[in-house]
Amino acid sequence: MEFIFIRHGHGEHLLDYPNQLNTSHPGLTEYGKMQVHQLREQITFSADDLILVSPTKRTIETAMMLTDNINFIITPLVGPRMFPQSAGAPFLNCDQIYSKVEIKDLYGNVMILDLNLNCWENGINKIDQDIFEEYARQLIDWIEDKYKRIFVISHDGTITNYRIILGEEGLSRNDFLGEGGVYRMNLCNK
After folding, report:
1. Span 2-38, pLDDT tens digits
2. Containing H/E element for 151?
3. Structural domains of the chain ordered from first start
4. What is the C-alpha to C-alpha distance for residues 132 and 148, in angstroms, rounded to an integer?
5. Are 53 and 107 in contact (CB under 8 A)?
6. Residue 152 forms beta bridges with which residues?
7. CA-to-CA distance for 130 and 108, rounded, in angstroms?
8. Residue 9: exposure state from Cβ atoms within 10 A (0-12, 13-18, ≥19)
9. pLDDT, tens digit, for every residue of 145-187?
10. If exposure means fewest CB atoms within 10 Å of the residue's CB, which of 151, 172, 177, 185 is most exposed?
11. What are phi and psi of 55, to 5 degrees?
12. How many helices (H) and strands (E) does the chain have?
């Protein structure tokens, strides 16, 4: 099984960093769209792949540009998550996820996955680490051996958190992917 993590392209909330971090539902900038366009030349998808996408505008836009007509699944289980966790850090509006109703209104009949976990209202950004790890393991168990390639289109902190859960050690913020970055991780029946 191979996990391919993709970080979204440059977002509008980064145009005037850090002054626009409280922008609600920022999309991709023109530069971010160019990054994703370049990424299309490196990534190919098949109908047999699982493509999980964070419920934010910038990640959904990234997925739509990358996948053409291949279905993807939006889930809060790969939504924004801080790394490392900091109890005193403020919640930023740029990391607010869309609700299921907003997703259906904005994007039509896209597939949504929640595994009946309580994470649509506030997402996974600031939940306790042990709860996040339980949710992440439930997602990984749901995937099981049904897919050979799992793409996760998400955010730098979320990707780093999942890499640790999947067995990497010693990661820090220095291991964050750049905008439109890709990280491949092969697993042998974990």
Report:
1. 999 999 999 999 999 888 999 999 999 999 999 999 9
2. strand 149-154
3. 2-186 (3.40.50.1240)
4. 24
5. no
6. 5, 52
7. 34
8. buried
9. 899 999 999 999 999 999 999 999 999 999 999 999 999 999 8
10. 172
11. -80, 55
12. 5, 6
Paired tokens of 84: 């490392």
Q: Is 144 exposed, middle or buried (0-12, 13-18, 19+ CB in 10 A)?
A: exposed
Nearest of 93, 98, 114 to residue 63 by alpha carbon: 98
Torsion of Cα atoms, 21 then 36 then 155 then 26, to 10°: 30
Residue written as tokens 């339980």? Answer: 134
Q: What CA dihedral angle connects 58, 56, 25 and 94, to 10 degrees?
A: -90
H-assigned helices in the chain: 30-40, 57-67, 100-107, 129-143, 156-165
Look at strands 182-186 and 73-74 and give their pairing. Answer: unpaired
Q: How far apart are CA 181 and CA 32, in angstroms?
A: 11
Residue pair 39/6 in contact by the 8 Å Cβ criterion:
yes
Task: Indicate the SS3 state at residue 69.
Answer: coil
Q: Which residues, 6 or more positions from 78, have their beta carbon under 8 angstroms from its beta carbon?
A: 52, 53, 54, 139, 152, 153, 154, 158, 162
Report the alpha-carbon angle 86-92-98, nearest 5.
Answer: 115
* Rg of the Cα atoms in the chain: 15
